């Protein structure tokens, strides 16, 4: 079965460039805000003919960057450095025409350095810091001063501007660092989940190798047991009830031989070779009928409604075994009887197994861990069920059942099961 195509996930470098685009919008808004508010509020004339081209150039650069970002899947460190240099050059030009180092907006160069330190590698980050210090130093002596008639008022507004730029710089730095921290945490969680899946896969492969060896070793004793059970079932000296039990024993041995014969096909693969296409309801009914034949003494109530017509899917032996194991676990917890419900919403096939047993650990309900032992069993069947379902893009969830017991819900994407 071909796997479903997946959309390429954006790389961390493209995410960083996307955040830079957002910050550049803030820079452009700040430049236009200064052009509009300062002459009106402070009565300080600004050289609009020189400042408007700077803001417009930064706006055009941001538009071109957005266009480029839509056409690439990865961004090099050199390009991120160049993008930050564009912002540094734009603010340096803006500050040159508005007083240079005497302009309180000079502090806005610091967030660019902080962003570079959080985004770039060490050589590029240090290079950006050197450029920012050089720009500050040049603006100290080379600039065009503004005409401010009231020197006392100028000092007051300079201090107010310093406070405003400090507050703005602190907000920008915190916003960017918080975003970066969230990305790092998400990446760490994804790595932990991948590591857990790899370890679980290794355990499943080891179990597959063990199963293949067991299938080879158990073939001979099972054959002997089948012969003996057949002879007992045909022995006229035995009472009918004993012969019926011997016939049932022979049937169970045949099931065991069939299961062992398919272990090498199931172990470590997504589906067995030669899988047939079946309607979902027929596939599920077949699994339930086989389970009933293996455990005839446990009552299983089944309700299956996959719609009309039911979606067709390829019979996957690993998923059959997963559903079989979930029902087995429920029957072990509640030998008096279990229930199985199955349905489809058009996109997912949902199978629910319900029992009235003692329940399951809270850690398994929350999905935090897969315990090595459940009740009196070893939990191997549940481990295999998790592995088979996750390989198909589905998941298994456990929840307490109202009134006592457990509800195991197996969800499978139908698209991953189609021929």
Attribute tags:
single chain, 419 residues, alpha+beta, Heat Shock Protein 90, 11 helices, 7 strands, rod-shaped
Describe the structure.
- The protein is α+β, with helices and mostly antiparallel strands and 419 residues long.
- It has three domains: 12-149, no CATH class; 201-266; 277-417, Heat Shock Protein 90 (2-Layer Sandwich).
- The protein has helices spanning 12-41, 48-69, 77-96, 109-119, 122-141, 151-234, 240-266, 280-294, 317-333, 362-365, 380-391, and strands spanning 277-279, 300-305, 312-314, 338-344, 348-355, 395-400, 406-413.
- The strands form two sheets. The protein has a five-stranded mixed beta sheet with strand order 2-4-5-7-6, with helices on one face. The protein has a two-stranded antiparallel sheet with strand order 1-3.
- A hairpin with a 5-residue loop joins β6 and β7.
- α3 (77-96) packs antiparallel against α4 and α9 (317-333) runs antiparallel to α11.
- The longest helix has 84 residues, at 151-234.
- It is rod-shaped, with a radius of gyration of 35 Å.
- The termini are close together.
- The relative contact order is 0.07.
- The model is unreliable at 1-11, 267-274 and 371-378 (pLDDT under 50).
